[in-house]
């Protein structure tokens, strides 16, 4: 009667409940590096007004390099056919869907529509908000940071956006970026967010000696003058098309030139230019200030203008003077002025990066932001940069794409590469966590924007002491060292691939991958060089010597301004984006190779200049006379012009003109190996003729909505709870688009694979193709190797692989590629060399070493767990009545149960009862080998699942044959066909591939969709999250979400090694698994997937009874738990995890585990995992593990489903939103004692509420039943 009166009340409450408007937020950006010498002082005032800028995702960005190469590659027939500004805007404008989605999110969050402003190119939404509004909107906290100088800045450590919004936003400002703008001026600067622009360490370096002018080419090793440069670089051309041409020099206020300095210099080195001045374009209230006059504020501008103007005379020079005296400026400000790329109606820049105008501070510029006020010059030189480690990848990529757009419009952008060798500005290097440190950093620190592949990075050379202009130069090693190295953000561009690979192969640097990114798959710099030592400049009324790539950049800019002049004079267009040209073999002769010197830094000699491209001087220094001849022929010239050249020159030109355009598309790294395998050694290249069963996982539609769709049928407050989808509906929802299928198919056919070699899965999610190793290596720009293990086993794989830019968005992952084996192989039967990436051999129950005497009494449950103990612990008083409608599956791999003595002591009615076997991919319930290792898991799972749910039939999902084995994907194939292709869609590096051609292997077809998904599936296996790539983890995780949409609850055991991985393996500082000495926690997988229910372990504490509170398991095993390094925090878990981290802050540093509070935590709930009595190999034994906990919880959910099915309702499906709901809190026994030690620590501690040891606690079935019955 009490139950009957209770149900209507709960049902009514659920029926009128409105789904929470709060969307699931995921972390979008984190601060790239903690700022040196800055201290977090206090929370930012909640009423402070922040000018927020939302950078919308732009269309066609995946094709950006492809489109740019069409107009920039010297072998392209479209070379020089640059785009107009309007065409660029149209190409990359965000989609209407992106604009509507972001606008909708903001308005739904309480921001009125009239507060939003959209940029003219629709790329940015601008909104002024209070700190409080921003913190609520982005689920973050803003703080004020203080510096010993007294300066203050604001920022947040990370921020989040709703899952469905994430793909529509590149970045939001101001958020995570920290100040790197120069603050050399003593004028008042606003005490707020001035973050992330050119470093204070930029600019030329001054010699500490008096200069006596000796204008002779014999002295160019001591004094560089314009004549020295003309001699070094064969500058003999006089401009004739100056009205058509343009050359811009960027300076940041308060840097400014002095007219008297220009005239002093011109008077000595270019008399006709005395009185000449640059054409100033004053950006955002800039002034060419003369109040302060010293080297620090005049040196850079004087140097740039004196040499740019004299080398290109009479070409007018445009001075892009940027920023007012109060606010200053960043790189985006000058980009705004020339193309409006970052502008909104009221300014699209970032207070964390750029100057914001109008500037309301006293003395600040009150006019509007300078947006598109001048056409982009054909050439721009910028002698400033910052460390790449100071910007986030999102910010770096967004700005880098703007340089590419300038290239599309015909502009060449030069950036100096830095003056501190392999170190960052001021000699700052990185620590092992890639954080900048003032001292003792050993990791190289590349510069930005020099590392952006769409700028031309300029290094520095020198006339070696005692040498002349007729001798080869060397890398600059006087006062400064040429900046160079390898990016940690940008992939290797196609135009540079051959040069970089040649350097790494023929001149391998003597440094580890811990010191620089030596994968051979990332952008390297500089691209080119010019002299950077002993420049004579007029400065503050006198002459001085200066050094730096600050000099090299405007010199190279001057040379290519002259190239543009020659092209414009004959009716051609400017060269635009330069890099494909300078790396092309046809242009090799136009550069002087630099083969001596280095760029020391970070306590090392740095890299060494050598034959060909190197990360010290790039391809070398330019020879203008040779460049002109080659550049003038692009694209093919009319014959009448060609005939004016001499015959030898004609031969060169005709050779170039007739060269066929390259078919090679730009490639980008798509996936890298997640972790180097422990105990495996690279042995040799894989046989080129070996046939690989390739599987191309196509990008699925609506994946960004998978959690939203799942929550609609799984959240207890949703009116559509339990209205699960059919398999056909799920397939239709997520099937790849026609564009994706056609794009990938065309790519494969264009690469030489005939159409009849391709096979498609039934749901179109996979393309299958057999190909030789040689074919795959060519297709994916990679190398396959064979790895050997001390056991004698062999496996194969590649370290990373690449795809064309226009294909990347259409492919999730490709197999077999970067995954490495984590499959168990306990059988003595030989397994074929290759199978990679399965459940860990270290999973499974742990056996007690003591003799078991059966004492079937509830008083002894602390020593012997039986079915009755569990019934008492978890109030299991329900007997199933709807077994014909219900289903419960146990996933099993390689293990098997012997067909005797099951449950005869504890459930006599089940003697002789067996599970319903579903034999997946040739599986057998083998009885040849009978031991704990082969029978323990299966016996445990079945004995307790069958005993607790009797008379419910249990489905045994026995997976994999004895030879090939199996992985998680194999059982997923069997129940929903999600990973199937017509001939198998699994991964030899992850799963069993069938038919199995190995001796004794299963010859039948792959088991694809052979059984309907059970309503509950328990899997007592796992692997370390560090062993899988993010792409693989996410792809498989979405399949669990789809099962949830179909109405299936999937439970996985959380692991038995506490915060460590399988077998107690932890990670090092680089998140690589190590056998010993690892201190970083190592979470498991698939338990970190937010769409499975992770089950931890408890125990009846020694001396306690079933009536006492349990504790976390600390006997033989420790409950696996922690925080993911891949998956963001799901919305249903946010409050619980945040409460734990706030109220029970773990005593570990951020380097030990992911403590951001923005990632998935596990387990979700727990059940007993200690002292289980099982019948094993004809006797009784005690076992321990979350391997026991998972099928016990699965049994309870199966009983819940039975009650619902009996009442005419559907199964509960995905249960996580329910168990975290406050409504369900009384149905769980909170566990508040014990921990999960590992990695040399005590691990986390079980405490009040959710914790990463036992989750929300253990279930009480009697209380769960009415709550679930009350749901629709």
Automatic annotation (TrEMBL):
Principal subcellular localisation of the protein: secreted
Catalytic activity from the UniProt record: Release of an N-terminal tripeptide from a polypeptide
Give one GO molecular function term: metal ion binding
Query: What does the note accompanying the cofactor annotation read?
Result: Binds 1 Ca(2+) ion per subunit.
Q: Name one Pfam family in it.
A: Pro-kuma_activ
Cofactor(s) needed by this chain: Ca(2+)
Q: Quote the InterPro entries the UniProt record gives.
A: Peptidase_S8/S53_dom_sf, S53_propep, Sedolisin_dom, Tripeptidyl-peptidase_I
Record's keyword annotation contains Transport: no
List the PANTHER family.
PROTEASE S8 TRIPEPTIDYL PEPTIDASE I CLN2, SERINE PROTEASE AORO, PUTATIVE (AFU_ORTHOLOGUE AFUA_6G10250)-RELATED
Question: What is this protein's name?
Answer: tripeptidyl-peptidase II
The species is Psilocybe cyanescens
Q: What is the lineage of its organism?
A: Eukaryota, Fungi, Dikarya, Basidiomycota, Agaricomycotina
């Amino acid at each position: 009667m009490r139950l009957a009166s209770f149900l209507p009340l709960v049902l009514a409450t659920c029926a009128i409940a409105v789904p929470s408007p709060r969307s699931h937020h995921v972390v979008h950006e984190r601060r790239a590096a903690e700022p040196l010498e800055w201290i977090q002082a206090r929370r930012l005032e909640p009423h402070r007004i922040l000018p927020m800028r939302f950078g919308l995702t732009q269309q066609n960005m995946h094709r950006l390099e492809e489109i740019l190469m069409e107009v920039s590659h010297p072998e392209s027939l479209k070379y020089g056919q640059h785009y107009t500004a309007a065409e660029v805007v149209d190409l990359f404008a965000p989609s209407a869907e992106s604009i509507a989605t972001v606008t909708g999110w903001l308005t739904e969050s309480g921001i009125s529509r009239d507060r939003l402003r959209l940029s003219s190119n629709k790329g940015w939404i601008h909104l002024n908000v209070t700190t409080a509004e921003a913190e609520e909107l982005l689920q973050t906290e803003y703080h004020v940071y203080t510096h010993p100088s007294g300066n203050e800045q604001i920022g947040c450590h990370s921020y989040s956006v709703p899952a469905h919004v994430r793909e529509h936003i590149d970045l939001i400002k101001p958020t995570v970026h920290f100040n790197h703008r120069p603050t050399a001026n003593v004028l008042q600067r606003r005490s707020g967010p001035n973050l992330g622009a050119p470093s204070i360490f930029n600019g030329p370096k001054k010699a500490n000696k008096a200069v006596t002018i000796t204008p002779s080419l014999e002295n160019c090793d001591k004094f560089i003058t314009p004549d020295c440069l003309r001699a070094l670089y064969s500058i003999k051309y006089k401009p004739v098309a100056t009205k058509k041409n343009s050359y811009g020099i960027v300076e940041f206020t308060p840097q400014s030139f002095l007219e008297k300095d220009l005239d002093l210099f011109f008077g000595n080195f270019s008399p006709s230019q005395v009185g000449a001045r640059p054409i100033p374009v004053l950006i955002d209230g800039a002034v060419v200030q003369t109040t302060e006059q010293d080297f620090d504020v005049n040196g850079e501008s004087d140097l740039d203008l004196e040499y740019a103007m004299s080398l290109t005379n009479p070409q007018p020079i445009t001075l892009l003077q940027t920023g007012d005296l109060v606010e200053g400026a960043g790189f985006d400000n000058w980009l705004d002025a020339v193309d409006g790329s970052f502008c909104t109606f009221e300014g699209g820049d970032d207070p964390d990066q750029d100057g914001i105008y109008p500037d309301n501070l006293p003395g600040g510029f009150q006019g509007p932001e300078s947006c598109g006020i001048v056409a982009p010059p054909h050439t721009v030189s910028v002698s400033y940069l910052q460390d790449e480690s100071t910007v986030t990848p999102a910010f770096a990529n967004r700005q880098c794409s703007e340089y590419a757009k300038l290239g599309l419009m015909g502009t060449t952008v030069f950036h100096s590469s830095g003056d501190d060798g392999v170190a960052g500005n001021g000699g700052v290097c990185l620590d092992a966590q890639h954080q900048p440190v003032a001292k003792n950093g050993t990791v190289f620190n590349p510069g930005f924007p020099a590392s952006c592949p769409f700028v031309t990075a300029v290094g520095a050379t020198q006339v070696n002491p005692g040498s002349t202009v007729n001798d080869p130069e060397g890398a600059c090693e006087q006062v400064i060292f040429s900046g160079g190295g390898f990016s940690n953000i940008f992939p290797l561009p196609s135009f540079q691939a051959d040069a970089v690979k040649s350097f790494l192969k023929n001149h391998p640097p003597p440094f580890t991958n811990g010191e620089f990114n030596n994968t051979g798959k990332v952008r390297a710099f500089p691209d080119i060089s010019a002299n950077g030592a002993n420049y004579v400049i007029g400065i503050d009324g006198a002459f001085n010597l200066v050094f730096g790539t600050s000099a090299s950049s405007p010199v190279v800019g001057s040379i290519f301004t002259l190239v543009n002049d020659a092209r414009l004079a004959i009716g051609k267009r400017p060269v635009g984006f330069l890099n494909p040209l300078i790396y092309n073999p046809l242009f090799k002769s136009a550069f002087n190779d630099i083969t001596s010197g280095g760029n020391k830094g970070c306590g090392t000699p740095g890299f060494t200049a050598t034959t060909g491209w190197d990360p010290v001087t790039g391809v070398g220094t330019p020879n203008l006379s040779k460049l002109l001849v080659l550049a003038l022929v692009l694209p093919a010239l009319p014959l009448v012009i060609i005939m004016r050249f001499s015959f030898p020159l004609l031969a060169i030109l005709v050779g170039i003109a007739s060269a066929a355009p390259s078919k090679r598309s730009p490639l980008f790294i798509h996936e890298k190996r997640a972790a180097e395998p422990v105990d495996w050694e690279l042995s040799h290249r894989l046989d080129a003729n070996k046939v690989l069963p390739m599987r191309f996982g196509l990008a699925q539609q609506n994946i960004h909505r998978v959690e939203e769709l799942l929550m609609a049928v799984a959240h207890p407050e949703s009116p559509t709870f339990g209205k699960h989808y059919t398999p056909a509906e799920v397939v239709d929802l997520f099937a790849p688009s026609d564009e994706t299928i056609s794009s990938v198919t065309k790519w494969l056919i264009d690469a030489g694979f005939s159409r009849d070699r391709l096979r498609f899965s039934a749901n179109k999610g996979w393309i299958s193709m057999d190909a030789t190793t040689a074919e795959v290596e060519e297709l994916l720009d990679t190398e396959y190797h064979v790895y050997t293990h001390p056991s004698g086993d062999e496996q194969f794989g590649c370290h990373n692989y690449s795809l064309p830019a226009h294909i990347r968005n259409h492919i999730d992952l490709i197999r077999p590629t970067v995954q490495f084996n984590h499959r168990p192989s306990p059988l003595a039967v030989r397994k074929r060399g290759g199978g990679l990436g399965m459940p860990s051999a270290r999973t499974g129950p742990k056996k007690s070493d003591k003799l078991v005497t059966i004492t079937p009494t509830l008083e002894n449950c602390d020593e012997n767990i039986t079915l009755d103990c569990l019934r008492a612990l978890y109030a299991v008083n329900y007997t199933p009545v709807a077994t014909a409608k219900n289903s419960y599956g146990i996933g099993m791999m390689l293990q098997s149960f012997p067909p005797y003595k099951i449950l005869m002591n504890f459930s006599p009615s089940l003697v002789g009862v067996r599970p319903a076997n579903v034999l997946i991919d040739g599986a057998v319930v083998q009885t040849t080998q009978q031991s704990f290792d082969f029978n323990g898991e299966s016996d445990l799972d079945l004995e307790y699942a069958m005993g607790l749910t009797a008379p419910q039939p249990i489905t045994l999902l026995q997976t994999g044959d004895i030879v090939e084995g199996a992985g998680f994907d194999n059982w997923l194939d069997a129940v929903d066909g999600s990973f199937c292709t017509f001939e198998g869609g699994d991964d030899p590096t992850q799963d069993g591939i069938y038919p199995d051609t190995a001796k004794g292997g299963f010859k039948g077809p792959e088991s694809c969709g052979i059984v309907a998904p059970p309503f509950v599936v328990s899997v007592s296996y796992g692997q370390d999250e560090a062993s899988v790539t993010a792409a693989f983890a996410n792809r498989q995780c979405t399949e669990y979400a789809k099962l949830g949409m179909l109405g299936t609850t999937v439970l996985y055991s959380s692991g038995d090694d506490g915060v460590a991985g399988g077998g107690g393996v932890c990670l090092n500082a680089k998140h690589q698994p190590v056998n010993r000495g690892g201190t970083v926690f190592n979470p498991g997988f698939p338990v970190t997937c937010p769409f499975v229910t992770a089950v931890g372990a408890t125990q009846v504490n020694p001396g306690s009874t079933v009536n006492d509170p349990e504790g976390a398991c600390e006997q033989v095993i420790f409950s696996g738990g922690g925080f993911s390094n891949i998956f963001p925090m799901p919305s249903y878990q946010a409050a619980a995890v945040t409460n734990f981290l706030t109220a029970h802050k773990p005593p570990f540093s951020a380097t030990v585990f992911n403590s951001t509070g923005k990632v998935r935590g596990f387990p979700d709930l727990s059940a007993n995992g200690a002292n289980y009595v099982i019948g094993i190999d004809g006797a009784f034994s005690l076992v321990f593990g979350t391997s026991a906990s998972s099928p016990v919880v699965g049994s309870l959910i199966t009983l819940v489903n039975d009650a619902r099915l009996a009442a005419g309702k559907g199964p509960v499906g995905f249960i996580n939103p329910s168990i975290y709901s406050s409504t369900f809190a009384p149905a769980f026994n909170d566990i508040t004692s014990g921990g999960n030690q590992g990695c040399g620590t005590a691990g986390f501690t079980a405490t009040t509420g959710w914790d990463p040891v036992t989750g929300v606690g253990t279930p009480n079935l009697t209380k769960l039943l009415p709550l679930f019955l009350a749901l629709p």
